[in-house]
Structures are given as structure tokens and as C-alpha cells.
């Protein structure tokens, strides 16, 4: 029987994923085979396993910390929000359907067998399991049929460490309030308190630590200092997304779409000296970047509508066509770049609906009822402009999309001038300027993405494209030359970089937690 420990938090973004990843790494370093587990994850950053199944990015990151390949058993239920009121529900890595929040809440018990079976499979394969909760266990309106916090702790018969975020203030109140709102049998599962993101001298905290222990009769097993450790982020609460101002060097602007997904695609760009990566959600912040990135999205048509209404589409159009600023679209961002999007099956809206695209690529997207999920690799085809130096390079990544993109048929769509929104002055652009050639030849013979003839626009379905060191370095070097600056790329691969960050994380948490107490909790816990 595997040893277990569960990490719950007083609120979202308190550091549950961070602490869980640290324990995965520490247990691995100490000779245990260990796996992460989160029964239900709500996030738009996802990952495709080797067998083509979809899980939350946080569990993939934790599996990497544990030194094992991510599997669907580590996250049997993934909720990907498609609107304020609903999500795409993914069970065992495959799409179950789109459900409104109340419909999912009513049907949640249907998924308990999938959760139990996934956990039992992991339990039979590993020495230890590090479980992660979601949000707060004290959401008393969600207590019935809970399968992710105390409900999951009961299913797994796991002891709990409760993490509080001191950086946002009120950590003692949040710890005390969370424990107080739990039922007696739930409180009994909490065997340790952890204070996360502390700045300053721990001695200042000591009176509060003693008082919270006396009031709750639960020991504080550690205080973790605030430290910059670069892990893949789980959702839209990421600190990365608040960077809006350009710094010196190359200015790379990612458009912060309302349903932005897999923004971890761009993390690798931060590892190049002289590159300033920022996220933009309003026209006033866009300025004149050296490169514009359109990310993936869980709702392409809704986010394109937002892009249009916000005025960002018009600004991007002018920057590309008049100022010759290059743009790269990934997945949903790639789909937006074309002339038209069609939804015959009602994947994102009413069946049969269509929408005008940005018109920067002579391409059309048709949404499909089935999702494409696969890890793949390929070779970059002939490209022009800032992308010319990547021709012939090998790349690898993964696909998650519901739709296919094709060259626009003659006579369909609109020409460049017509595509511009009201009030734009696109100059003399015509559709002929937007002709495309395939961007990447995949190993299975398929073609992925398009690059425009003038080399200003590049689109691909391949998530993780920028993790390819040579591909990214060649593009950034070309942009730097164009700007008249020098750029020094870090030679370390993403895999090497991540390994160094997991070790740094483990060192920090090992020094901050009473690991002897944590091991004792795992050894001795009984319900």
C-alpha cells in the first residue's frame, strides 16, 4: 500500500501545486517511487500524454519533478472553462462533453468510479502518492459530493497538510477559518499547517505560529520563503500574466485572450538574455513590439470577438501590414489569423455559424466534433522573412485542437482591405500578399500550419514549438539583427532548465519543512 500525503490550501494560488511538486521531488531524491494525483483540475493549461490523453499541466509538471512520465491516472477529471458558466469536461483524458456548472455539480457523483479507479491504479504502482486539492476545502456550498478536497482525502485515506499564503495577508485568519469550517472528521485529517510565500525574518512570525498551534491543536510543519522558482503555471492566476510593460531588448507581446490556454508555450522565451516577454489585454499596452504572439484559447470565436471589440485586432492588423511587425499564432491564435472560421457542429456556438477571421493568412478553419490530441515531431518547411533561418530544423511538440485549417479557396473570404475593421487604414494590402505555404511537415506525413509568402505571419497547431532551442534561437536572433542589437541565447535546453528548477524547489522546501514530521505523518496516519 502506497504512503500518501495530500496538499490542500486555504484558497486558490496558495501554493498547493508548488508544495506538491516539491514533495514529489524530495520523495524521489529519497529513493521512493512517487506519483502526483489530482482528482479534478480546472485549468486551461493542459498536457498531452504519450498515449494521446489530456491532463492538467500541473500534474504533468509534478510527474516531471517525480522523474516519471505523466499519465492520465494522475488527473482523471479536467475541466476546461469555455465561458463564465460552463466547461468542457474531460474524463480519463477524453472529452466527455460541455456542461454548465450546475449540470456538472449535479452529475459529479457519476465520475467517482473513474477517480477511484485511477487512484487505485497509481497506488498499486508507486511507493508514495502526493495528492493535491483544489481551491479551498472550506467552500461549504460545495461540500456535498466533494471529490477533490476532503472527499478525496477520505477516498484515499490520506492525511492533509494545509497551505496558507502569507503574501496576500491574513494567513492566520485564513488557516483558522478554514479549519473551523470543516466537519470534525475532516479537521482530524489535517496533520500539519504550512505557511507559504513568506518574506522576512521567521522570528517575527513565531508568536503567531505558537498561537495558531494552540488554537487549532495542529502543528506548523514549516514556513516556506518567497523564492523565484520557475515552474509551469496551472491557470490564469499566474504571475506571468501581469507583466505588461516592455523592457530593454527584444519586445515580445503575447495577447492575453480571455480564455487563454497553454500560455506555458511561451515560457521558453524568458530564458533568452535580452528578450522582454509581456502579456497585453488592452490596446493602450500593445505599443510597437518586435514580435506579436497569439496564444491558444479554449474559445476561439468568443476570443476573436473580444479581440475585435477591444480594438486589439485593428492594432495588430496595422502593425503587421504597415509596420511589418511579425506575428505567430499557436492553435486558436493560428485559427484567428485566417480569413474565416466555420462551426458546422456547434463546437463553440450555434451549429452552422461562421465568423470572419483576421485575414492575415489566406486560410480557413473548420471546427470538428472530435478533438485532435497527439504528441508529434516534424521538420520546418521553406519559410521566409524572420522565419527563413528555421527552414529544415527539427521540432517537436503536441496538438490539442478541435478543427482543421486549410488554404482558403479562391473567391472565399475577404481581401486584406475588407478584412480590416472599421476605421482601419490597411494601406495597399491585397489577398495576394497573404498566400501561404505549409509551415511544418510532421513525421506522420501531415502538414501543420502555414507561413505567409512575405514571412510576416506564421501559424501552427504545435504547442511547445518554442521549447525547441534551435527554432526559437534562430527567430530571436534574426529579430535582434533586424533591430540592431545582440542577443545571447541560453544554451541550456528546456529539459535541463526544468530539472535545475525542480532541484532548486526541493532544496528550498526541504530546508523549510520539518521533513521528519512529514514522513512521520505519512507513516503513522490512520483514519
Query: How many individual β-strands?
Result: 29
How many domains, in number, for the residues?
2
Q: Indicate the low-confidence ranges by residue numbers.
A: 411-430
Radius of gyration: 24 Å
**Head-to-tail CA distance between termini:** 15 Å
Name of the CATH first level of the largest domain: Alpha Beta
Give the structural class.
alpha/beta
- Shape label: globular
CATH topology of the largest domain: Rossmann fold
Mean pLDDT: 89
Q: What kind of sheet is the major sheet?
A: 9 strands, mixed
What does this structure look like?
This protein has 527 residues and is of the alpha/beta class. Helices cover 29% and strands 27% of the residues. It has 2 domains: 256 residues, P-loop containing nucleotide triphosphate hydrolases (Rossmann fold, 3-Layer(aba) Sandwich); 237 residues, 3-Layer(aba) Sandwich (Rossmann fold), CATH 3.40.50.880. It contains 15 helices and 29 strands. The strands form 7 sheets. The chain has a 9-stranded mixed β-sheet. Strands 2-9-1-10-11-12 form a 6-stranded parallel β-sheet, sandwiched between helices. Helix 1 packs parallel to helix 2, helix 1 packs across helix 14 and helix 6 packs parallel to helix 8. About 4% of the residues have low confidence.
Amino acid at each position: 500500500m502506497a504512503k500518501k500525503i495530500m496538499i490542500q490550501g486555504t484558497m486558490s494560488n496558495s501554493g498547493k501545486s508548488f508544495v506538491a511538486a516539491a514533495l514529489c521531488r524530495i520523495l524521489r531524491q529519497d529513493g521512493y517511487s512517487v506519483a502526483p494525483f489530482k482528482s479534478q483540475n480546472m485549468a486551461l493549461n493542459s498536457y498531452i500524454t504519450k498515449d494521446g490523453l489530456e491532463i492538467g499541466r500541473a500534474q504533468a509538471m509534478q510527474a516531471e519533478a517525480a522523474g516519471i512520465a505523466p499519465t492520465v491516472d494522475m488527473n482523471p477529471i479536467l475541466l476546461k472553462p469555455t465561458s463564465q458558466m460552463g466547461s468542457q469536461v474531460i474524463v480519463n483524458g477524453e472529452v466527455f462533453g460541455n456542461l454548465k456548472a450546475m449540470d456538472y455539480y449535479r452529475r459529479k457523483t457519476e465520475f467517482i468510479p473513474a477517480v477511484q479507479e485511477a487512484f487505485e491504479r497509481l497506488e498499486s504502482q508507486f511507493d508514495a502518492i502526493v495528492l493535491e486539492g483544489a481551491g479551498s476545502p472550506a467552500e461549504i456550498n460545495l461540500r456535498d459530493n466533494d471529490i477533490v478536497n476532503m472527499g478525496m482525502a477520505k477516498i484515499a485515506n490520506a492525511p492533509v497538510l494545509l497551505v496558507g499564503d502569507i503574501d496576500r495577508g491574513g494567513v492566520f485568519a485564513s488557516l483558522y477559518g478554514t479549519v473551523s469550517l470543516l466537519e470534525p472528521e475532516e479537521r482530524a485529517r489535517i496533520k500539519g499547517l504550512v505557511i507559504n510565500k513568506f518574506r522576512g525574518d521567521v522570528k517575527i512570525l513565531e508568536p503567531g505560529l505558537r498561537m495558531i498551534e494552540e488554537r487549532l491543536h495542529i502543528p506548523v510543519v514549516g514556513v516556506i520563503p518567497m523564492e523565484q522558482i520557475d515552474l509551469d503555471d496551472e491557470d490564469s492566476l499566474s504571475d506571468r500574466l501581469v507583466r505588461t510593460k516592455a523592457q530593454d531588448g527584444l519586445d515580445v507581446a503575447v495577447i492575453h485572450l480571455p480564455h487563454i490556454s497553454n500560455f506555458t508555450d511561451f515560457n521558453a522565451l524568458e530564458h533568452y538574455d535580452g528578450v522582454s516577454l509581456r502579456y497585453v489585454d488592452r490596446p493602450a499596452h500593445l505599443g510597437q513590439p518586435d514580435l506579436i504572439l497569439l496564444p491558444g484559447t479554449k474559445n476561439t470565436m468568443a476570443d476573436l470577438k473580444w479581440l475585435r471589440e477591444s480594438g486589439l485586432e485593428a492594432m495588430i492588423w496595422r502593425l503587421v501590414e504597415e509596420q511589418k511587425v511579425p506575428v505567430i499564432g499557436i492553435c486558436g491564435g493560428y485559427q484567428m489569423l485566417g480569413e474565416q472560421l466555420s462551426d458546422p457542429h456547434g463546437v463553440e456556438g450555434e451549429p452552422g455559424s461562421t465568423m470572419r477571421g483576421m485575414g492575415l493568412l489566406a486560410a480557413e478553419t473548420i471546427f470538428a466534433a472530435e478533438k485532435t490530441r497527439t504528441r508529434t515531431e516534424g521538420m520546418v518547411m521553406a519559410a521566409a522573412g524572420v522565419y527563413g533561418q528555421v527552414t529544415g530544423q527539427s521540432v517537436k511538440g503536441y496538438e490539442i485542437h478541435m478543427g482543421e485549417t486549410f488554404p482558403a479557396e479562391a473567391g472565399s473570404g475577404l481581401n486584406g482591405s475588407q478584412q480590416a475593421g472599421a476605421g482601419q487604414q490597411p494601406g495597399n494590402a491585397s489577398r495576394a500578399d497573404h498566400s501561404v505555404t505549409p509551415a511544418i511537415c510532421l513525421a506522420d506525413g501531415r502538414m501543420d500550419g502555414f507561413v505567409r509568402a512575405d514571412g510576416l505571419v506564421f501559424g501552427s497547431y504545435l504547442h511547445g514549438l518554442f521549447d525547441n532551442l534551435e527554432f526559437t534561437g534562430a527567430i530571436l536572433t534574426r529579430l535582434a539583427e533586424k533591430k540592431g542589437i545582440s542577443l545571447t541565447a541560453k544554451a541550456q535546453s528546456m529539459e535541463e532548465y526544468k530539472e535545475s528548477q525542480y532541484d532548486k524547489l526541493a532544496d528550498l522546501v526541504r530546508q523549510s519543512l520539518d521533513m521528519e514530521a512529514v514522513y512521520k505523518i505519512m507513516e503513522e496516519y490512520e483514519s
